[in-house]
Write a structure and sequence with these properties.
Elements lengths: L9 H13 L2 H8 L3 H15 L4 E3 L4 E3 L1 H25 L4 E6 L8 H11 L4 E6 L14 E4 L8 E9 L1 E6 L19 E4 L18 E4 L3 H9 L5 E4 H6 L5 E5 L6 E8 L7 H13 L2
Helix pairs in contact: 1-2, 1-3, 1-4, 2-3, 5-8
Protein name: DNA-binding transcriptional LysR family regulator
GO molecular function: DNA binding
Keywords: DNA-binding, Transcription, Transcription regulation
Length: 289
């Protein structure tokens, strides 16, 4: 069967499901708030569009055909997806999803969650980890994103809510782990493990003649595993140390590396209603330390 010219409407699927659930055309009409004749016409139009018989009808009973059973199962999934889409698009203040790539807000994460729940009980807060350059914003996985490097200004707006120190991550038995702090020059002979897609550190932090070798990863757990084995060192925002403490890893401040700006980003043409409230609360938390 050629389905390219087939038009199936949601009202037809809702009608089919109602007939099966209610058991009769009369009861389906009552459930849908339409006439029995309208139910009959809608089902007939769906069967014509699909070119198959969906229901067996007698004077007392309505039952799906074999094909009808399969169509009804698909119809339920389609209608559930559409209902979810509508809830998502119209939720407004009901919930706020904040995406992050590796680490959320470090030591401020619990305080942010608690204070948000107290100040905005009408808006459920969800933190979502998405390891992409926009922390899930471009993918539609979140409404706001915590990012630590600038995004495309044509599509996104952002606000700097705070600053975080750069820390070096080394194996716990590495000689550098015995130091209270580290300088960039002390890492130039090491191999630096970086995530070019979402990370905040590249070899360009060092002068051209003393840049460390690099290896690449795309996952924070892999990053932690490789560093704890002593193969590489890492450099990251302070929040990572708060979110991923590990017995086999030591985090040490890098004294001569500039701090990392923490940004909250959103779609320029479609900001969430709670955007400003989130920016203000996070700015307060970072400012107060």
């Amino acid at each position: 069967m050629d389905v390219r010219g087939t038009d199936v409407e949601l009202r037809q699927l809702r009608c089919l499901v109602a007939i099966v659930d209610e058991g009769t055309f009369t009861d389906a009409a009552i459930a849908l708030g339409v006439s029995q004749a309208a139910v009959s016409r809608t089902l007939a139009s769906l069967e014509r569009a699909l070119g198959v018989r969906l229901l067996r009808r007698t004077s007392r009973h309505v039952a799906p055909t074999g094909t009808g059973l399969r169509v009804v199962a698909h119809a339920r999934r389609v209608l559930a997806e559409v209902d979810g889409l509508i809830r998502e698009a119209t939720s407004g203040h009901d919930h706020l999803r904040i995406g992050y790539a590796w680490s959320a807000l470090g030591r401020h994460t619990p305080a942010f969650q608690r204070r948000w729940a107290q100040a905005h009980p009408e808006t459920d807060l969800h933190l979502v980890r998405v390891n992409s350059a926009t922390a899930g914003l471009a993918e539609g996985a979140c409404d706001l994103a915590v990012v630590r490097r600038p995004l495309d200004e044509r599509r996104f707006d952002s606000a700097i809510v705070g600053l975080e120190r750069r820390l070096c991550a080394v194996a716990a038995d590495d000689p550098l782990a015995r130091r209270r702090s580290i300088r960039l020059a002390e890492l130039s002979g090491r191999t630096l493990l970086v995530d070019r897609r979402t990370g905040t550190t590249t070899a360009e932090l060092w002068p051209p003649d003393s840049r460390p070798a690099t290896e690449e990863t795309h996952d924070v757990e892999d990053w932690l595993t490789v560093i704890s084995a002593g193969r590489c060192v890492g450099m990251t925002a302070e929040a990572t140390a708060n979110q991923y403490p590990r017995p086999g890893i030591a985090y040490r401040p890098v004294r001569d590396a500039e701090p990392i700006a923490v940004r909250l980003a959103w779609w320029r043409d479609d900001p969430h209603p709670a955007t400003q409230a989130a920016v203000e609360l996070l700015t307060t938390l970072y400012r107060n330390g």
